[in-house]
Write a structure and sequence with these properties.
Radius of gyration: 21 Å
Strand order of the largest sheet: 1-2-5
Shape: elongated
Largest sheet: 3 strands, antiparallel
Order of helices and strands: EEEEEHHHHHH
Oligomer: single chain
Structural class: alpha+beta
């Protein structure tokens, strides 16, 4: 939510995570720092995300031109149609509506980090790579709290052990 346009380099296809938007009670705060040193990082921008970002930037510029007196001009990426900063509760509520509408189980927006960790692990990414992508301070947090081994992962290990044993005994 704290991502700013100035933190995105469209030529090098990177973005810098350097600030956070946090809610304390009824107040929203724009923090000039992230929760931890490992949270403050640079990430690559995949092409499909770059396309969405450029489209949104163009839409913000169009709306700014249409509403010069009413547009909340800021450098933030995550804004409402009038340029005002999105409220965290809006993201939470809207996410719940999308989940329900599409028949998915109830989950928190933050839980997408768990899904991402498991999908990256399924794709064969190393634990260290997943840790870096999720910006955790240590791999133990990533592997113990975010990556959940299901039965298919255990079956894959069993199949690999069978194949290795077959090679040895052949």
């Amino acid at each position: 939510m704290g991502l700013c346009w100035r933190a995105i380099d469209f030529e090098d296809n990177t973005l810098s995570i350097e600030r956070a938007i946090v809610r304390v009670g009824a107040n929203t705060h724009n923090k000039m720092a992230t929760k931890s040193k490992s949270s403050n990082t640079m990430l690559p921008i995949p092409d499909f995300i770059k396309t969405h970002l450029l489209n949104w930037k163009s839409e913000q510029e169009r709306r700014r031109a249409l509403q010069p007196n009413d547009y909340h001009d800021s450098d933030f990426v995550c804004t409402a149609l009038d340029g005002s900063l999105l409220k965290q509760e809006y993201v939470t509520r809207h996410f719940q509506l999308v989940m329900k509408k599409n028949g998915f189980p109830k989950m928190r927006f933050h839980d997408l980090r768990h899904s991402a960790a498991n999908y990256l692990e399924y794709l064969g990414m190393s634990g260290k790579s997943i840790q870096a992508w999720l910006r955790h301070s240590n791999i133990q947090i990533t592997m113990d709290r975010y990556v959940k081994k299901d039965m298919s992962a255990k079956n894959a290990i069993g199949e690999e052990l069978n194949a290795r044993y077959a090679e040895i005994t052949a």
